[in-house]
Amino acid sequence: MNARETRSQTTPHTRTFRKTQRAAYAFLSPSMSAILIFFVGPVVAALGLSFTDFDIYALGNPEYLRFVGLENYLRLVENPRFWKALGNTLYFVVVGGPLSLAVSLGAALLINSRLLRLRGLFRSVFFLPVVTTLVAVAVVWRYLYHPSDGLLNIALGWIGIAPIDWLGDPDWAMPAIILMAVWKNFGYNMIILVAGLQSIPETLYEAARIDGAGRWQQFVHVTLPMLAPTFLFVAIITMIGYFQLFAEPYVMTQGGPSDATLSIVLFMYEEGFRWWNIGYAAAISFILFLIILVVTILQLRFSNRSRT
Amino acid sequence: MTNPAGARRTRIPLLAVVLGIVSIVAACSTEQGERVEISFWAMGREGELVRELTDRFERENPGIRVRVQQIPWSAAHEKLLTAYAGDAMPDLFQLGNTWIPEFVALNALIPLGPRLDGSRVLDAGDWFSGILDTNVLQDRLYGLPWYVDTRLLFYRRDLFEAAGVTEAPRTWAQWAEAMRRVRAQETAGDFPILLPFDDWTPPIIFALQLGSPLLRDEDRYGGFSDPKFASAFDFYLSFFRQDWAPSTGRDRPNNVYQAFASGQVAMLITGPWNIGEFGVRLPESVQGAWATAPLPAADGEAPGVSIAGGASLVMSRSTAHPDAVWALMEFLTAPQQQVEFNRLTGDLPSSRTAWRMARLDEQAHTRAFWEQLQKVEALPKIPEWERIASRITRYSELVIRREMSPDAALAALNEDVDRILEKRRWLIDKRAAGPVAGLSAP
């Protein structure tokens, strides 16, 4: 009795709710179906492919496709090149990521500083590399890095440092890639951080000054905490992007010398689109996906804990 | 640009008009019937310059229209495979002859043997036998050699003569001696020869010269643990160990042409495209000073074997107009057009008659190629070959950099290659067990 009453009472409500819900789904359906077809579908298909040995033979004749279970993953774990690629990628993320963040933060503070003149000009100049085509950048940087005629080595020569074979020496190739990537990308994060800096209310600084805080104390106790959410966002985006290192080594070194700049994505590209081992390449991409997922979760959890 | 309401009002009539046009066009084409259109994908410069020949072909064959599409070499492989997967293959295309096995494995090509036998224009005996062989898989001919490519010596004759080497080396021993003499004449930073790390052809050529099989058991396993391959690899390494070729990145020249012009390197192992490039890129002062020579042989019988390269014309299995496609293939590979194509591109003709017609067999820089092309061998004809070649490059580089010993590198290489060939072994066993749609059989 009671239940029926409640139902009859809520029915008009539910009906309108259902109606709006239906309308909402109708409006969402174009983008939802696009996501299903172009994102979820391929991801599921790729996961399926990673359990097969799909290759050029299977492309020609589906009978030549074998279900291999976890073999692709096991072979990857055994493959020293995979570990090399993973190590290189981690090197790039661990060294390049923080470096990029530090440079971005420094540039953002500089641009936001009231002491600086021509702020707009600097903002544009720092942002310019981000919008420049990577291939053009690579050509110029290859000249800069040239062992005997490169500007960088000539400059090092002035301060008495022997020329470095930037892209030809396995020990220097990755630092060279990092340097170029940081230069190319820091402007993007800088713009986001500047926006974060500008949203910090001036009253907080005023209050800090009244309490006698110096410049450094203001930075540590006002700027950094207020910037933390923006900084976390930038850090995660940078980390995800840096795990997917591809274009820089692809155009600069093709993964060489001696695989010193072979990244996971470059390795996957090579296996998938050069040798057409689609199954194997799909397994690589899933491992990369899992790594990024885990690291992102860890980063979020860590930042949540430090905030509470 | 028009307002939405207007667009809606016109939609239905517009659709009707479009449908009407489509049906009229369709009706016309079925009425005419005889005029067929064939699509032809050609790569790089060839794709650009072949239009001059196809224009003439269209004039001579008014019933056939040729749509040439130029594909850059760097994207060619991917584009062809994607076209295959998407069922959008051109009727006719150019294929580097090391790619033929892959497309045969895909069953994407039509065998041409019967058509060639019936041809009144072409004669298989007119092609260099080593080059023709790259187009034959399981006794079937899948491509017509269009232009040829091989590797041999390009060297600075003046620098060699200054070092007391008056004739190009004909044997490995003479080659080593020539290197030693040139080295003795040079200052630090200059090298008698340049062997780029990413070029797998020199060690493979040396192996072929020693008669190493490269792969064994019907190409089912790697043959790199063979002692002959080890000797060939050792000879290759000697160029670096004796400091005849730059073995560090620092010594490697940035621009090969500048290095060759300045004498920083005195010799290269490279292909026919550089005849044209040298003519354009080298300064006037060294134009008369360089020469080409066939590869030295391991033993006395010069020239030594080189690899059979080049590009072929192949017919797609999906073509609806095989006769028209064949007519164009016949036209492009006939000696007369081969001569003209050589004049346009500098590519070396596959037809020996064309060589004689253009007197290429007598000219200074091409004469060495004429001699070399009589002695070229096909690389293993399996789809996995390029992948195997990339492993060779990788391990050679590790050894040259002294990060790995030659023995360990060859053992690891062989292991890698065995793994790469696992699918091939499985397929061969599967075929042996029962009738399956074959690797290539239709």
Structure description:
The complex is a heterodimer of chains A (308) and B (442). Chain A is an all-alpha fold and 308 residues long. Chain A has helices spanning 2-49, 56-60, 71-78, 80-112, 119-131, 134-144, 151-158, 170-198, 202-210, 215-243, 247-252, 264-274, 278-307. Chain A folds into two domains: 2-49; 80-307, MetI-like (MetI-like fold), CATH 1.10.3720. Mean pLDDT of chain A is 88; it is low at 1-6. Chain B is an alpha+beta fold. Chain B is built from 20 helices and 15 strands. In chain B, strands 2-1-3-13-6-14 form a six-stranded mixed sheet. A three-stranded antiparallel sheet of chain B has the order 10-7-11. Chain B has a two-stranded antiparallel sheet with strand order 4-5. The longest helix of chain B is centred in the first third of the chain and has 29 residues, at 4-32. The A-B interface holds A 53, 55-57, 59-61, 63-64, 66, 146-149, 163, 165, 167-170, 256-259, 273-276 and B 77-78, 81, 84-85, 102, 105-108, 197-198, 248-250, 252, 254, 383, 386-387, 394, 397-398, 401, 403, 423, 426-427, 436-437, 439.
- Helix count of chain B equals 20
Helix content of chain A: over 70%
Which architecture of the largest domain in chain B would the CATH scheme give at its second level?
Answer: 3-Layer(aba) Sandwich
Gap between N and C termini of chain B? 53 Å
Coarse morphology of chain A: flat
Please tell me the overall pLDDT of chain B: 89
Strand order of the largest sheet of chain B: 2-1-3-13-6-14
Which percent range describes the beta-strand content of chain B?
5-15%
Computed CA radius of gyration of chain B, to the nearest angstrom: 25 Å
Assign the CATH class of the largest domain in chain B. Answer: Alpha Beta
